[in-house]
């Protein structure tokens, strides 16, 4: 510190910047020590100003657990999606979707936590509300498996679209009519091919007709973003 007073250029720029913010900069070296000592003594007496900045280790640990829970739903929520309308399929338990797996208890459900990058439109949520939102987004009637995608841009694009609507996209009347026309056209083409080439090997659209409409809409949205 004394060196910074007598020869400032000999001190690293970061340290020099810090020393310049201390009181007494520009005074004689023999006066600097007493002024600096008084400065830190005043800070110690007024420590209450900085107490709010001190974090609770337990709260920080739970915050990390909450972010891990969000990530677990992104990775494995599709394994618990409601894809069987008849209820005949018994789903296997997905352990890391359980808050208890992350050391989160019902006592934490009324506590508010930062939701990180979860695109729900809020910075913080009560844990109970967050879990409900995660279930609606990733465990509804549509399962979203996308975290294996290597492109960060594509992965975030899907994540934003899914989470911002809680897994329930809204469509205008015109969009619904267009989807119906596309599904009808696909069904008509399949029937025609079946009648025209009865012995030819082909892959049926049965049960997956909606995938074409979904893919077309996703591609259309992507094109609009690139060329607004």
Automatic annotation (TrEMBL):
Compositional bias of kind Basic and acidic residues: 213-228
Classification lineage: Bacteria, Pseudomonadati, Pseudomonadota, Gammaproteobacteria, Enterobacterales
Free-text function comment from the UniProt entry: E1 component of the 2-oxoglutarate dehydrogenase (OGDH) complex which catalyzes the decarboxylation of 2-oxoglutarate, the first step in the conversion of 2-oxoglutarate to succinyl-CoA and CO(2).
EC number from the UniProt entry: 1.2.4.2
Keywords: Oxidoreductase, Thiamine pyrophosphate
Cofactor(s) named in the record: thiamine diphosphate
Chain positions covered by the region annotation Disordered: 200-228
UniProt keyword Transferase, yes or no: no
Keyword Coiled coil belongs to the record: no
Source organism, top-level taxon: Bacteria
Protein name, per record: 2-oxoglutarate dehydrogenase E1 component
InterPro entries recorded: 2oxoglutarate_DH_E1 (IPR011603), THDP-binding (IPR029061)
Designated gene of the protein: sucA_2
């Amino acid at each position: 510190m004394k060196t910074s007073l007598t020869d400032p250029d000999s001190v690293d720029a970061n340290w020099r910047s810090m020393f310049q913010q201390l009181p007494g900069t520009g005074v004689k070296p023999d006066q600097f020590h007493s002024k600096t000592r008084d400065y830190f003594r005043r800070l110690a007496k007024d420590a209450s100003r900085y107490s709010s900045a001190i974090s609770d280790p337990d709260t920080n640990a739970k915050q990390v657990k909450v972010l891990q829970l969000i990530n677990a739903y992104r990775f494995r929520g599709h394994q618990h999606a409601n894809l069987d309308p008849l209820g005949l399929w018994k789903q296997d338990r997905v352990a890391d979707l359980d808050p208890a797996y992350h050391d989160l208890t019902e006592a934490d459900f009324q506590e508010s936590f930062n939701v990180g990058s979860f695109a729900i439109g809020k910075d913080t949520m009560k844990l109970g509300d967050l879990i409900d939102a995660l279930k609606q987004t990733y465990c509804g009637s549509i399962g979203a498996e996308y975290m294996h995608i290597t492109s960060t841009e594509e992965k975030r694009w899907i994540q934003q679209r899914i989470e911002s609507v809680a897994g329930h996209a809204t469509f205008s009347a015109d969009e619904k009519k267009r989807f119906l026309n596309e599904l009808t056209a696909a069904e008509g083409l399949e029937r025609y091919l079946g009648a025209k080439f009865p012995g030819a090997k082909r892959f049926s659209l049965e049960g997956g007709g909606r995938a074409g409409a979904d893919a077309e809409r996703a591609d259309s949205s992507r094109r609009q973003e690139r060329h607004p």
